[in-house]
Amino acid sequence: MNNRYVLGQEITADAISTTAGTDYGTSVVLEDSTILVGAPATSNASTQAGFYRFNRINNLTNSWSKIRSQDPLVDVSTIQRISLINTDKDAVVEYLDVIDPLKGKVAGIAEQELSYKLVSDPAIYSIGVAGTNNDTTKNWLDDHVGELWWDLSVAKYVWYEQSDLSYRRNNWGKLFPGATIDVYEWVGSTLLPTEWASTADTPAGLAKGISGQPKYADNSAVSVKQVYDTITNSFSNVYYYWVKNKVVIPNAKNRRISSYEVASIIADPLSYGLKFAAIISKDAIALGNIGSTVVADKISLNVAQNLFEESTVPPRHTEWVLMQENSPASMPTRLMEKKLIDSLLGHDSLGNLVPSPSLSERTRYGIGIRPQQTLFKDRLEALRNIVEFSNSVLLSATVTGKYNFDNLNAQEEIPIRETNRYDLIVEDNSELNTVSTAGFQLAVIECNVNSDGEVSNVEIVSPGYGYGTLNPVYDNFDTLIGYKGPVFNDVSYTYETTFDNNATTFDGSTTNFLEIDLVNTYGRDLKINTLVDETGSIIDTQIVTSGKGYVSDFKFTARPQTIMVLSDDTYNGKWTQYEFDYNTYKWNRAHTQSYNTQLYWNYVDWASDNYDAYQIYNYVIGSPYELNELVLEEGQYVKINNGGDGRYIVVEKLASNVYGTFGQGFDLVYSQNGTIQISDSIWDTLNSGLGWDYNNTYDSTLFDQTPDLELRYILKALKDYIYINELKDNWNL
User: What is the pTM of this model?
Assistant: First the structure.
């Protein structure tokens, strides 16, 4: 057995047992059905030597027979999701935790509270005993207060995955007699462990949040920090240690329930009332506490399981992760972040709807991409929650001047005036309406084509009227000779163009080309600059590139007169481009700024939690350099009109030996425009006028101007440039 001999059967003869000195078994020969055993009798000369032959009489019988064997263990890692489905409504009623503590599967509401699951104490103490980590330079202090450690050394379970289904169901997750679930919380207190132990869970102790028993109640293992008391002018000690069975929930990140409750859930989820599932065999599932959920035959159990062997399928990504809220060490993966952003936008980067309309109500939620699933039932409500959470974080921190605002300032810029794509810049719509259009005419030129298919000469057929004078042109003597006029080329304009002196026509007479790469199908790469006078009429032309592939002479009509509006009040303050329509004699919007992130956030003043808005300033100075010239008492305010970037700030005087948030002896308590707030219009499309029209006619609102790009830039700014350093844990929403 496993390359070793084990006792299978004893073979002997009566003569062997009654005769001494036979040396039976000195040699052995084995064949398929025969065993030969030598008995040389070298130890006894009076005994006859010989050998014994034994023949197998039953080929079907083995020396050992199997009584029972362990069944293969259930692989809970293949279980992706278990849920209860209302088949009438085709909706998810409940998602169930999978409980299998020996394989590390405990209830999620308990798992998310835990920081450590170890058989040994993870803490580093100032003072300790044999077996603890002791280091006065690295000892655990405030940074670990509120963290939980599950001591696995005392957690022993009955071997529940054996025997029949009844045994498994009754013993699933059951602790072995004498075993316990010990969950410790790291606390900080002015009380030593012995003092904590005597006060804990008394009415007076509970009123102060003192509950549970210290792991080292004899004060043998603690971390110590000395704190200066300004009232007594002396130092006092703060002690840090583990406490078990604490029923008070600490005011700490990632904590929602007490350590006692965490231990209770792990020890007995059934008694706690948790709805859960236990995969007790390969073809049996036990469910706990779902009696109130079952409604006749309308509720079905849905199990999502991956049954493929890893070696038989291509590499795949598993995009779920249990994260601790507000933990800088527990962040969503890159692909999970992409799914989050796509779900917030309602579409992915390729324009595919998220979720896909082809998915049913109960299958549209998840991380799938073929077809696209979503993470949110209500996308706008989720976006609102993110905006409100982010605004609460931003109000608590000074971000102006400390963080990169490139993404927050991202926008489509107005084309530079030197491109000659427009003739005039106005501030807003009211100024646009004052622009005189009297006498407007389109300019027309005729291009002469040589035998090489290039434009060799240009004649002005109609000089036009009303083109812009934004870009003056001077000669070598700095004398004004005109202004840059409309450019004739093959990019991004609507042209009315005829060929062969009207000998060739398209669609009746002329052809309009909108947003095309070529002026016509006969040639390309043409560019002609023009010079206009003060009335906006063409007085000269210049062939920049002659083009190629042209067949014969043709006429070329210039773009219409064009105006840029810097802030269009009908389009949420974005810049817009208007072109003059010669059919209606009105200005028509030709292009709207595609995105402007600055429209969706605002600067606001920042104030510290202890700022007193009613306290008067003891001094008002021009710059921080003047602070050293002032005679101040602790607690007094100084207003600085220019804190370094033109914004005023208010600082509070501290003790001279204290280093504050504004350098030695000062705290910053107020900062003009010191932080920002994200606008509700990024999600409130109904009240902001964005999104689909509700009660308005087509194109009378900004239904086509939903701020998708702006939202992407804001989320990127939060993740990469604001939620960093001390704010990093806020990206884990």
Answer: 0.55
